[in-house]
Amino acid sequence: MTEKNELTAGKRIGAMLLDHIVMTFVIMIIAMPAIISKFDNTFGDEPIAPKGAIDWSLILMCFGMALYFNKDMIQGKSIAKRALKQEVVDIKTGKVASALKCFIRNLTIAIWPIEVIVVLISPARRIGDFIAGTRVELMTDERNSKPKVDFKNVAISLFLGFIILFAGSLLLKDKLSFGNSAFDSPAYVPSSYNKDLSLQLENQLNKTQDKYLMHSDIKVYDQITNDSLKYVDASFDLKEDYIDDSSFENIKAEIFKSMYEIIPKDKFILKGKFIYDGEKTKKSTVRTYDWRKIK
Fold it and tell me: Residue 102: what pLDDT?
């Protein structure tokens, strides 16, 4: 084989960079609708999702990342490898590697800086290849570079990638929230929405807190699963940008106090979204209240 056709570190790193650009773009296309929806709801008046609600942005992101880890699943070639005439080969058989082996070799993408260093030393085999029993070679006429696609194998690889990423995301989320006093939205019963009480609270705030608030949107739910309290989901549109002001906690307490005149504080739990929508600045923050968690 001439030097021109050798698999060099430059060709491998070029394929890795091109793959990263392409797969990042693919992930963004997949996850963008849910991300935009979540961002839009930050300044909207939709009720906060109850605990246990499906997080579509997380699901779509995990699916996109599963595609990243399975980028070589079709005939051992990612988009970049096809463009640069490279493929993943089973080290034992010399044939194009299966989707499962390609998935295993790509798990080490998580330590990509180290993998780049390894490729500089060993272009054909990075750490993932040593684990999966594969290597990267240039496509040749001698080898069947277009084997029949095993769709069952591909589906299993995608499923494994999604499950591993989704479970890992949930575990990481739980670890990060461990010991955090942040309040989780309860599993309220949507059909228990109390329109009259919701309007009564809105009128109370419009009357007593017009100094701070432009508008309030209150939704009261009379029933929470396995709980005797009501759930109040509130959205407060602020007149000024009080969110970063030192007086904000006092303003919040004053607003909540007005609500206690309608519902005693030991009868409900609250999640209030404070929003400032100025011409140049948009901010929001969430403040919660559960009297049983306050010592």
Answer: 95
Tens digit of each residue's pLDDT (9 = 90 or more) over 204-237: 998 888 889 988 999 999 999 888 999 999 999 9
User: What's the number of CA atoms in the CB half-sphere (13 Å) around residue 28?
Assistant: 6
Pick the CATH number of 190-293 from 3.40.190, 3.90.1520, 1.20.58, 3.30.70: 3.30.70
Please, are residues 15 and 84 in contact by the beta-carbon 8 Å criterion? yes
H or E element, residue 272: strand 268-277
Domain boundaries, the chain: 3-177, 190-293
Q: What are phi and psi of 249, to 5 degrees?
A: -60, -35
Burial tier of 77 (Cβ tally within 10 Å: 0-12, 13-18, 19+): buried
Contact residues for 40 (Cβ-Cβ < 8 A; gap 6+): none
54: three-class secondary structure by DSSP: coil
Written as one string, the DSSP assignment of 90-132 is ETTT-SBPPHHHHHHHHGGGGGHHHHHHHHHH-TT--HHHHHH
CB 82 within 8 A of CB 18: no
Average pLDDT over residues 54-59: 74
